[in-house]
Amino acid sequence: MTSESWLDAEGVFETLRTYDNKPFALAEHLERLQRGIYELGIPAPSIEKIKDETHDHLESNRQESGHLRLVVDSLGKLSIS
To answer: Running DSSP on this structure, what letter comes out for residue 61?
Structure first.
C-alpha cells in the first residue's frame, strides 16, 4: 500500500554507508533525520526505535559494504532499504 505522502514528496530520508555490516556515522545521520522530522512535524517513531530497527535490518540483510536508506513518510511510517 502506498502512502499518499509519497505522491506529494512529503517525508524525510537519510542515506548512509555501511562497512562490515555496520552503519557509518549513524548518530550524525539520526540527528539530521530527527531535525527533519521535527521541522516537518511528522509523528515519527523515536530515534531509539529507528536505531534498533536499523540494526535489526542490517542483521537480516548482511552486507560487507553498501548503502542504507532510512525513510520516514509524513504519516510517520519508517522504511529501511
So the answer is: S
